[in-house]
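Example record for the data management plan.
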Amino acid sequence: MGRKEVHSGSEVMEDSCGSSSLTPWINSERNTETQSDNEEKEDPNVCYTENEANEEDVSPIEQVALTVPTTDDPSLPVLTFRMWVLGLLSCMSLSFLNQFFSYRIEPLTITAVSAQIAVLPLGRFMAATLPETKFKVPGTKWKFCLNPGPFNVKEHVLITIFAGAGASPVNAIHIVNIIKIFYKRNLDLYVALLIVLMSQVKV
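Corresponding structural encoding:
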């Protein structure tokens, strides 16, 4: 009826019509290859370990990776008396100085990096000299301390953010200058302050 031929290790059955069918072992090889391809693909449900997750946060720049930690210490105080005092002082100082020097022919700009460098010894000095006594707000259960511990990196970062907010230029200050200098008109202080503040609001 039919005849059996062997070609390179595979069995091929040919019938009288000339049609052929592959043997089951070829299908098993294909199934094996499909399984191996599926195993190579990443499973989205796999949970990475803490070390693998931290490796993704490491900066490719060596200097940054050596100085910037990838972990957080929630025990460090943030909203401290030192942070508010140095942050507000740096914000107001840079705002005044940059606006004052902007009227020069060659204006002098003081960036937040200058304040970041200057407040570090001031913060450590305040941490060494301020009392550690806890003060209680009358009528409430809230307590605060002027010196909760050493000056830390979180306080330093927030002070730098304050300084960066004060170092940026004020957009509407030129309107106030034109009204007073070019048009020779007096502008009320509260009106001028309102114009400056509203120009800084970004929607």
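Summary line stored alongside the record: Residues 72-169 form one domain.
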